[in-house]
């Protein structure tokens, strides 16, 4: 028996060695035919096998396990025509094969990543868009989603309610569809769905990003595919060096950031004039001693009295609070990459460091990232592992509250004490004031930035392990395992004399939240590929499980003895608060099957079905099936199309199916318990009662999707693109249903209501200059998206829900829902009074009927009952743009490259918070520098100091006087300028629309003959401007940031270099 075993082992060894000798290596370089520059990120594949490699920055690649014999080797990269060459591979030896790619628009060709595999783009039946590594590298950011802004039609990426460094981005694919359950897409990295977010994932290690939109593409993810799927493929074991050698690359960036736009607030003299008019309007004394406080009078004299200025040189004429809390934010990024190939093994190591100072005091973001990727092929077995560890530290500070104070404090206040001399400059004896103005609710924004400390630290380890075995006869078996471990610390410290929610807390307090999360995905796949004559099959079967477990613990203490301890010694507080903790566990099991079929390479069919079971749901509702079908027709390859020579490619697509949204929280079907304290015999005791009515009948929200599209190429792909029309209806919405008070509960969560999304999207690529003969090459990408979402139905038989601003046939209002995420605050519907203008002097009699007077805000009396009531409110618009557009253009000539990216958001309504909050024209707060109504200015007379307008002047004529029909008359003692504080925001609704220059890049690749003298294999230097310009009529900080005192957006100017060794 032992001898038999030895013989078997020897036979196996001989077979293995024989097969190893039957393999060879293919190495080479991929360059541009136009100018010889190296091309990074190209995919090199031995046709008919899974042997593939990606080129590095130097353009080099290596396929260490290529089959011996005559082989076809193909190179593909978006933006270049694919190229296939024949090579003879000697067994056990290496052969060199170089490629020169010709630039071309190739949207109809190439390999794209799909769910659980790859496909030729020409074989796709679904709506999938791709972003290449080169496009990602053009954006200087640590967030990969910011790198796809304005790149993909149908995908909207905006800042998540703030412009502080490290903030997550708000991403939606083909609009929003859920009212209360979230609209973020599913992120999948190297085939592994992420349980957490994507914001701390290093974009520099990404090979490509694919966005799956329609049912044919997303149904493979079943209950998680409603909101679209974003696939991220990393550089796995990238080749690029000779056998047993090392290739090194180093990238560096340095730059600075400054505020893109500051709000034009009133300065000292302007605020003084406004205060005086506010006192006059309110019928109060107008002498300065009555209007201003004793602390303000020196500043008033300094701003208006030349003699006082001469006696007090350097006195403050007004404090610019915005500039006091601003700074130049410096940014740097460094990345070191090492790749090595030894036989059939390839290894890649990447380390990166990103550091960004916020332009607001107290803010910043740092990210440390390291990635190890290893891959080995042995006989029919291919194994690989990628592990990425990140540590991010986000200094959030007081964030919006700093800017709230900077805008609200009037310019007559002073930030520093300086021996009684009004001065806004730092000095050795100056100290920060706590209250720079007499207003008890206003605090020094510098004190706010110094005394409010908030820091989030996140550590994350994400991995992807796979093994793939070729079984023969076209079958292969693959196992994917993806662990995702993370922990997060969120510390908040509020020092004494810091304003929290407009109330001074008086004593220092701190809070610390620690969270841990462990998730993993385990997928087993059986794959089958077979070609028989004109029939081609590609079958995928999957069984997978995913588990997620997360915990949080929160501790808080008040009356801390020392500010230096922050949140690290909560036990020293005099008043510790009860700790809180949570546990959340959910599991998902899935079965999936997909069949791709092609007949004669022209007629395409994709059938997909996924069966998901979730622990989140109650018994009887845990499992659900999500099917889809996709059809494709390569019309351009039909014989009857040969007469249309200008058509270089034409494919028609159609798809339909159902996907779901994992929108139910764990244990949500169980209800819950609330803790309540009771009095038992004079002693306090705790008891528990049901906090919500259980509903075991909850199910997933489901979305039925239909899509029809065309892919085209014209004039040898000098013009190419895609056009899609889609309709998506979401049912079983998770919404609270109101209950009679007699039940004891106000509402219960149920699956009620429907919404619908419909629209179209188009992308067009043009080759304006082909770059032949050594001339310049110029390409342009155009992208357009139109989406309309609306509510189809709410609760059975129910009409509009005015309280929540949910209206049948109107877009979804999310921003005012309780507990909404900051980025969803941008999704709002406005139902309010219609602003008409300002009551003029000639309107006095009519204004009195409404209890108003000239100079007050005038709104439309819709029902004509001579009273302004809730019945006069109407729909005024919404924040959803009617059109998203982008233009990306790239010019290369010799070794120079120039590119820019322009994006437009058009046709929306803006809730301009500055139109109400910052223009109350009220004595306590500062205001926008606006031309407001006064009787002397707006009566039409030649002398603006007296009422001397011509008799018989109409209200329309008075309203036409500049500055008389936009902003109301200031009034002291009246905080809101309309109807006893009822809806003073009506003037805030304005038409919105803007264009933004997202990126401008200029680069130069040095000649190889030059850089080789310094031991470089490649060197490219460049300069970039990120978000340098925005063209808008909005006078707030940024039109995409929503309303409120959000920190301003910023422009980034930097220089960088890509080096290869």
Description:
The protein has 1061 residues and is mainly beta. Among the domains are: 18-103, Carboxypeptidase-like, regulatory domain (Immunoglobulin-like), CATH 2.60.40; 115-252, Ferric Hydroxamate Uptake Protein, Chain A, domain 1; 835-994 and 1005-1021, no CATH class. The protein is built from 14 helices and 52 strands. The protein has a 22-stranded antiparallel barrel. A five-stranded mixed sheet has the order 11-16-17-14-15. Strands 1, 4, 7 and 8 form a four-stranded mixed sheet that branches. Strand 29 (509-532) and strand 30 form a beta hairpin. Helix 9 packs antiparallel against helix 10. The two termini are 55 Å apart. The model is unreliable at 1-21, 238-242, 419-428, 500-505, 817-823 and 979-983 (pLDDT under 50).
Beta content comes to over 45%
Structural class by helix and strand composition: mainly beta
Low-confidence stretches: 1-21, 238-242, 419-428, 500-505, 817-823, 979-983
Main beta sheet: strand number and arrangement?
A: 22 strands, antiparallel, barrel
The number of distinct β-strands equals: 52
Mean pLDDT rating:
84
Tally of contiguous helical segments: 14
- Helix content range of the residues, please? under 10%
Q: What would you call the shape?
A: globular
Q: Over all CA atoms, what is the radius of gyration?
A: 33 Å
Give the assembly state of these chains.
single chain
N/C terminus separation: 55 Å
């Amino acid at each position: 028996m032992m001898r038999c075993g030895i013989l078997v082992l020897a036979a196996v060894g001989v077979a293995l060695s024989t097969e190893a000798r039957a393999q060879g290596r293919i190495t080479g370089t991929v360059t541009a035919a136009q100018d010889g520059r190296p091309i990074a990120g190209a995919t090199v594949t031995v046709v008919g096998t899974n042997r593939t490699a990606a080129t590095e920055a130097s353009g080099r690649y290596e396929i260490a396990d290529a089959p011996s014999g005559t082989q076809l080797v193909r190179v593909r990269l978006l933006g270049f025509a694919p190229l296939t060459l024949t090579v003879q591979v000697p067994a056990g030896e290496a052969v060199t094969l170089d490629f020169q790619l010709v630039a071309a628009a190739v949207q109809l060709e190439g390999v794209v990543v799909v769910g659980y595999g790859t496909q030729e783009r020409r074989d796709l039946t679904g709506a999938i868009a791709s972003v290449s590594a080169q496009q990602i590298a053009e954006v200087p950011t640590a967030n990969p989603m910011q790198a796809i802004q304005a790149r993909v039609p149908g995908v909207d990426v905006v800042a998540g309610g703030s412009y502080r460094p490290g903030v997550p981005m708000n991403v939606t694919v083909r609009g929003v569809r859920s009212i209360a359950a979230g609209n973020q897409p599913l992120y999948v990295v190297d085939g592994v769905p992420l349980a957490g977010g994507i914001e701390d994932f290093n974009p520099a290690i990404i090979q490509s990003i694919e966005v799956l939109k329609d049912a044919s593409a997303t149904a493979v993810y079943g209950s998680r595919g409603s909101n679209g799927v974003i696939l991220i493929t990393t550089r796995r074991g990238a080749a690029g060096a000779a056998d047993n050698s090392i290739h090194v690359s180093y990238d560096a960036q340095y730059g600075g950031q400054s505020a893109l736009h500051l709000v034009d607030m009133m300065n000292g003299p302007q605020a003084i004039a406004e205060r005086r008019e506010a006192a006059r309007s309110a019928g109060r004394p107008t002498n300065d001693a009555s209007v201003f406080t004793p602390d303000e009078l020196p500043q008033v004299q300094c701003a208006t009295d030349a003699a006082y200025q001469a006696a007090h040189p350097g006195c403050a004429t007004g404090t610019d609070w915005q500039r006091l809390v601003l700074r130049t934010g410096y940014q740097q990024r460094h990345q070191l990459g090492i790749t090595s190939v030894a036989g059939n093994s390839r290894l890649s190591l990447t380390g990166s460091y990103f550091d960004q100072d916020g332009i607001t005091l107290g803010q910043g973001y740092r990210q440390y990232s390291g990635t190890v990727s290893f891959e080995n092929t042995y006989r029919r077995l291919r194994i690989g592992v990628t592990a990425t560890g990140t540590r991010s530290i986000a200094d959030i500070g007081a964030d919006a509250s700093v800017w709230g104070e900077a805008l609200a404090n009037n310019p007559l206040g002073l930030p520093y004490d300086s021996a009684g001399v009004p001065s806004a400059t730092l000095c050795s004896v100056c100290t920060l004031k706590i209250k720079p103005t007499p207003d008890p609710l206003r605090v020094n924004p510098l004190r706010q930035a110094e005394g409010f400390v908030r820091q989030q630290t996140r550590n994350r380890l994400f991995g992807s392990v796979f093994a793939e075995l070729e079984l023969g006869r076209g079958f292969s078996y693959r196992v994917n395992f993806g662990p995702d471990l993370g922990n997060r610390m969120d510390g908040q410290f509020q020092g004494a004399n810091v304003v929290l929610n407009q109330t001074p807390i008086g004593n220092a307090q701190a809070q610390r939240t620690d969270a841990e999360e462990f998730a993993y995905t385990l997928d087993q796949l059986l794959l089958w590929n077979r070609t028989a004559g004109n029939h081609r099959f590609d079958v995928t079967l999957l069984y997978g499980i995913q588990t997620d477990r997360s915990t949080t613990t929160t501790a808080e203490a008040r009356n801390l003895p020392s500010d230096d301890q922050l949140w690290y010694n909560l036990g020293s507080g005099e008043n510790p608060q009860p700790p809180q903790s949570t546990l959340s566990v959910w599991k998902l099991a899935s079965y999936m099957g997909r069949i791709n079929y092609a007949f004669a390479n022209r007629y395409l069919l994709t059938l997909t079905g996924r069966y998901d079971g979730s622990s989140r749901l109650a018994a009887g509702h845990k499992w659900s099936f999500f099917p889809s079908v996709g059809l494709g027709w390569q019309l351009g390859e039909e014989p009857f199309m040969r007469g249309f020579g200008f058509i270089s490619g034409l494919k028609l697509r159609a798809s339909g199916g159902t996907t779901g949204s994992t929108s139910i929280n764990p244990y949500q079907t169980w209800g819950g318990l609330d803790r309540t304290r009771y009095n038992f015999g004079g002693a306090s005791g705790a008891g528990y009662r049901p906090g919500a009515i259980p509903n075991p009948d909850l199910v997933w929200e489901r979305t039925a999707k239909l899509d029809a599209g065309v892919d085209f190429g014209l004039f040898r792909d000098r013009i190419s693109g895609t056009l899609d029309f889609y309709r998506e209806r979401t049912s079983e919405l998770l919404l609270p249903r109101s209950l009679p008070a007699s039940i004891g509960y106000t509402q219960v969560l149920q699956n009620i209501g429907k919404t619908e999304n419909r629209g179209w999207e188009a992308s067009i690529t043009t080759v304006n200059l082909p770059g032949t003969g050594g001339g310049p090459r110029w390409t342009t990408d155009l992208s357009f998206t139109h989406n309309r979402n609306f509510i189809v139905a709410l609760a059975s038989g129910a009409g509009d829900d005015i309280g929540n601003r949910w209206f049948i046939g109107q877009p979804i209002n999310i921003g005012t829902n309780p507990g909404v995420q900051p980025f969803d605050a941008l999704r709002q519907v406005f139902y309010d009074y219609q602003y008409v203008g300002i009551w003029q002097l000639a309107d006095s009699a009519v204004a009195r009927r409404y209890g108003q007077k000239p100079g007050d805000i005038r709104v439309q009396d819709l029902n004509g009952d001579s009273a302004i009531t809730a019945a006069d409110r109407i729909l005024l618009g919404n924040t959803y743009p009617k059109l998203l557009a982008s233009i990306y253009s790239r010019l290369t000539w010799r070794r120079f490259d120039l590119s820019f990216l322009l994006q437009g958001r058009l046709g929306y309504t803006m809730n301009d918070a500055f139109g109400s909050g910052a223009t109350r024209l009220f004595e306590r707060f500062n205001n926008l520098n606006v031309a407001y109504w006064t009787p002397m200015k707006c009566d039409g007379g030649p002398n603006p100091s007296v009422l001397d307008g011509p008799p018989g002047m109409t209200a329309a004529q008075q309203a036409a006087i500049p500055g008389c029909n936009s902003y109301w008359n200031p009034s002291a003692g009246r905080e809101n300028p309309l109807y006893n504080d009822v809806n003073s925001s009506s003037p805030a609704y304005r038409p919105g629309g803007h264009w933004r220059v997202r990126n401008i890049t200029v680069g130069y690749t040095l000649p190889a003959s030059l850089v080789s003298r310094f031991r470089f294999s490649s060197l490219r230097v460049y300069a970039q401007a990120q978000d340098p310009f925005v063209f808008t009529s909005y006078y707030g900080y940024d039109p995409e940031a929503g309303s409120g005192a959000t920190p301003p957006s910023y422009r980034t100017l930097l220089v960088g270099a890509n080096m290869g060794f």
